[in-house]
Fold:
Amino acid sequence: MTGLPQFALTFLGILFCIGDVAALGLLLTWQERAPSPDVRWRRLVRGVLPATAILLGLLLLAFTQIMLLWAQQ
Structure:
């Protein structure tokens, strides 16, 4: 039997995933709006790639936690 906490945690996990994807979109938009190709390259290497790795890791962790939450049934 599933309880309200399980649904609430799933909803929060989905909201986190949506926010994570939105942050990735903002990050890529910020990188593309640089004034010159040189600045875009620096933003990509110094900011976008490390932040994307962290955000994708958090997204994978959230998906894993949601699956483990429902696998206990």
Summary: The chain has a mean pLDDT of 93. The chain is about 90% helix and 0% strand. The two ends are 8 Å apart (CA to CA). The longest helix spans residues 37-71.
